């Protein structure tokens, strides 16, 4: 990509307002709540006169460090998965954060549009105007803008080039950071998040469907008794109306979304516990239990993170419309059809019917359609700059990851100069929830060794 990087635009005169509104100390850590006012559009020529939004980040520091010592620690920015996921709210330092807090001040970012960062949902978006206005607004909520926010935050904090840690979509953002503002980076750690640098979204979903099909087979190998239960639930939902506690109907395709459990080692066995709660006997015959329906509601509703559904395919959109790529590729994988005799459970794909069947998304269906048809998405990466990269990068690639394909990840790794890969079959996409402390320490060690 040619043109100005985020840092160049900031140097051109953008003013970022920063305030700390509250500080707290509990469970072995001190926190500070940071608020920043940043440009909505970092890449316009409006400068300080342009519209601004709020970006929120929470600082975490171990009480093992005195306040004086903590003030001298380098910053580590954590970029959460998503899109549409707010920064983690840590009840204590554990796993990767415990390891990181030994050497860093951790900054947990609510990426724009999430959490306390000018949050977006069905209630706030209409403030922007009509459907076209809302779609235009959302075009400013991709990785390039998130990176520009992060660089603005770094400068407002007075930080030297910092360490960033990107999980899943956070790794996609890290690649954008390396593309457009590498001067702000000391080192980069990535877990399960090496995005394809080019190519249509279709190839991502083709690989994803294949991975998810294999994961279904693996799961039903562990729990063969669950295969007939899944098929029975699908038959039942075709013949009988069942409603979730929020009033929305549970359809076969919505039920298939419980396949999200398949994406990690720390959650996969919980799918069995969900399915064993499925049926109860009632005066009207066997029906789905309230306990089951309540659990499913939490898995299939996007009321808490509508940006995920709205923006998911756009993270693969560069110079072309995605056009509901997952929905089109699904035609080549009939085993995932809700009409199949033994339908498979699905993964992270987003389909147009989400915006008909999910009450939290229904008001946004026209906006989603406009985003799916948007053909002028800007590039998210600069392959030429990545090929010349000088920032130490260490990335964990999980061999059987159903969300970020191994082959596509390794293709990207080979295109980034100096990127070191640690490939593991011991973890899935949720590796940092499985053994985050060891994974973080290993990647940091790899990155630091590259500096010597």
Overview of the structural elements:
The protein is of the alpha/beta class and 452 residues long. The chain has 2 domains: 6-198 and 381-451, Rossmann fold; 201-372, no CATH class. The chain is 37% helix and 17% strand. It is built from 18 helices and 11 strands. It has helices spanning 6-11, 67-71, 95-100, 131-138, 143-157, 169-180, 201-222, 226-239, 252-256, 270-275, 290-300, 306-311, 325-329, 354-357, 365-372, 383-387, 406-415, 431-451, and strands at residues 17-26, 29-39, 52-62, 75-79, 105-110, 162-167, 185-191, 279-282, 285-288, 393-398, 419-424. The strands form 2 sheets. It has a 9-stranded mixed sheet with strand order 1-2-3-5-4-6-7-10-11, sandwiched between helices. The longest helix has 22 residues, at 201-222. The protein starts with 5 loop residues before the first helix and ends with a helix. Residues 1-13 have low confidence and may be disordered.
Strand content: 15-25%
* Number of H- or I-type helical stretches: 18
Give a count of the beta strands, DSSP E runs of length 2 or more. Answer: 11
CATH architecture of the largest domain: 3-Layer(aba) Sandwich
Major sheet: arrangement of strands? 1-2-3-5-4-6-7-10-11
Identify low-pLDDT runs: 1-13
CATH class of the largest domain, anyone? Alpha Beta
* H/E topology pattern: HEEEHEHEHHEHEHHHHEEHHHHHHEHEH
CATH topology term of the largest domain: Rossmann fold
How does the helix and strand content classify structurally? alpha/beta
Helix content: 25-40%
**Rg value:** 22 Å
The mean pLDDT is: 94
Largest sheet features: 9 strands, mixed
Count of the separate structural domains = 2
**Ends: how far apart?**
30 Å
Give the overall shape.
Answer: globular
- Can you say what the CATH homologous superfamily of the largest domain is? Alpha/Beta hydrolase fold, catalytic domain
């Amino acid at each position: 990509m040619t043109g100005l990087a985020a840092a160049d635009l900031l140097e051109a005169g953008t003013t970022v307002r920063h305030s700390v509104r509250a500080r707290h100390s509990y469970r072995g850590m001190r926190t500070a709540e940071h608020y920043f006012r940043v440009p909505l559009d970092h890449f316009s020529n409006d400068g300080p006169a342009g519209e601004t939004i709020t970006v929120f980040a929470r600082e975490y520091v171990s009480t093992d460090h005195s306040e004086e010592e903590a003030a001298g620690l380098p910053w580590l920015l954590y970029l959460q998965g998503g899109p549409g996921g707010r920064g983690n709210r840590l009840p204590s330092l554990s796993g990767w954060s415990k390891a990181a807090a030994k050497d860093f001040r951790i900054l947990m970012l609510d990426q724009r549009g999430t959490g306390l960062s000018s949050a977006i949902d069905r209630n706030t978006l209409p403030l922007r105007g009509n459907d076209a206005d809302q779609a235009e607004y959302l075009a400013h909520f991709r990785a390039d803008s998130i990176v520009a926010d992060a660089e603005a935050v770094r400068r407002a904090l007075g930080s030297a080039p910092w360490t960033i840690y990107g999980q899943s979509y956070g790794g996609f953002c890290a690649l954008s950071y390396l593309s457009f503002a590498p001067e702000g980076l000391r080192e980069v750690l990535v877990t399960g998040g090496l995005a394809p640098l080019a190519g249509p979204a279709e190839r991502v979903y083709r690989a994803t469907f294949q991975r998810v099909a294999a994961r279904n087979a693996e799961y039903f190998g562990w729990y063969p008794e669950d295969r007939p239960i899944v098929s029975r639930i699908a038959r039942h939902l075709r013949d009988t109306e069942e409603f979730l506690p929020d009033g929305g109907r549970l359809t076969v395709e919505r039920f298939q979304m419980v396949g999200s459990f398949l994406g990690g080692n720390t959650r996969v066995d919980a799918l069995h516990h969900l399915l064993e709660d499925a049926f109860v006997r009632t005066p009207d015959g066997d029906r789905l239990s309230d306990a089951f329906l309540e659990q499913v509601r939490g898995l299939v509703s996007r009321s808490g993170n509508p940006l995920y559904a709205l923006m998911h395919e756009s993270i693969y959109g560069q110079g072309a419309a995605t056009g509901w790529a997952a929905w089109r590729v699904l035609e080549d994988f009939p085993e995932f059809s809700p009409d199949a005799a033994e339908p498979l459970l699905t993964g992270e794909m987003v389909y147009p019917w989400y915006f008909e069947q999910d009450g939290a998304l229904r008001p946004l269906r026209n906006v989603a359609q406009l985003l799916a048809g948007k053909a002028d998405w800007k590039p998210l990466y600069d392959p030429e700059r990545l090929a010349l990269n000088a920032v130490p990068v260490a990335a964990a690639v999980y061999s059987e990851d159903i969300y970020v394909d191994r082959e596509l990840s390794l293709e990207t790794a080979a295109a980034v100069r100096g990127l070191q890969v640690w490939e593991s079959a011991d973890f899935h996409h949720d590796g940092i929830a499985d053994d985050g402390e060891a994974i973080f320490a290993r990647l940091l060690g790899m990155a630091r060794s590259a500096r010597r």
